[in-house]
């Protein structure tokens, strides 16, 4: 949370700090974050209720992956006319696959078939998203 909002060298910084999403001053100390949010319950992740808002008390909650997927900015964005997914969702599928999330789980989260997840992960679909450069010019996989 702190790194993605404050470190421009992070690959995901553009989606957080680059959009001026910040962590409140109180939460810059882990003890304060823990006091406000409590320990992360098993199987849940930190989510911002308002995706344009900061990481702060009142705008964060513990949620499942399914809830997070439904609360994404890309869900309100425009889709390609021949696709069920937005560019952000395709990138997220590839990143989640790299983190070990199964095709079956990804298919369930994004409402597509496991076969289509495979096409996306293997870059047989959405080829134009094969690579981008991070802020240092280093190629990163999407």
Walk me through the structure.
It is a single chain. With 142 residues, the chain is of the alpha+beta class. The chain has 2 domains: 1-64, no CATH class; 72-142, Arc Repressor Mutant, subunit A (Orthogonal Bundle), CATH 1.10.10. The protein has 6 helices and 4 strands. The chain has helices at residues 2-6, 30-37, 65-70, 87-98, 103-110, 114-121; strands spanning 45-48, 60-63, 131-133, 139-141. The strands form 2 sheets. The protein has a two-stranded antiparallel sheet with strand order 1-2. Strand 3 and strand 4 (139-141) form a beta hairpin. Helix 5 (103-110) packs across helix 6. The longest helix has 12 residues, at 87-98.
> What is the CATH class designation of the largest domain?
Mainly Alpha
Overall strand count: 4
The parts where pLDDT drops under 50 for at least 5 residues are 75-82, 132-142
Largest sheet: 2 strands, antiparallel
> Could you tell me the strand content as a percent range?
5-15%
How is the secondary structure organized here?
Layout: H1 2-6, H2 30-37, E1 45-48, E2 60-63, H3 65-70, H4 87-98, H5 103-110, H6 114-121, E3 131-133, E4 139-141
Antiparallel strand pairs: 1-2, 3-4
Brief summary of the model shown:
The protein is an alpha+beta fold and 142 residues long. It has helices spanning 2-6, 30-37, 65-70, 87-98, 103-110, 114-121, and strands at residues 45-48, 60-63, 131-133, 139-141.
Fill in the keyword field for this structure.
globular; 10% strand; two-stranded antiparallel sheet; disordered C terminus; Arc Repressor Mutant, subunit A; 2 domains; 6 helices; 142 residues
């Amino acid at each position: 949370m702190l790194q993605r909002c404050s470190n421009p060298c992070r690959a995901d910084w553009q989606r957080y700090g680059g959009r001026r999403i910040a962590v409140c001053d109180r939460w810059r100390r882990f003890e304060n974050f823990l006091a406000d949010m409590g320990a992360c319950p098993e199987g849940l992740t930190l989510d911002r209720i308002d995706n344009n808002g900061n990481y702060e008390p009142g705008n964060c909650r513990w949620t499942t992956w399914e809830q997070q997927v439904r609360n994404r900015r890309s869900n309100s964005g425009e889709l390609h006319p021949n696709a069920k997914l937005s560019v952000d969702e395709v990138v997220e599928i590839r990143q989640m696959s790299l983190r070990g999330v199964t095709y079956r789980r990804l298919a369930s989260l994004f409402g597509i078939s496991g076969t289509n997840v495979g096409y996306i992960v293997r870059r047989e679909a959405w080829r134009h998203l094969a690579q981008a450069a991070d802020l240092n010019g280093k190629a990163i996989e999407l």
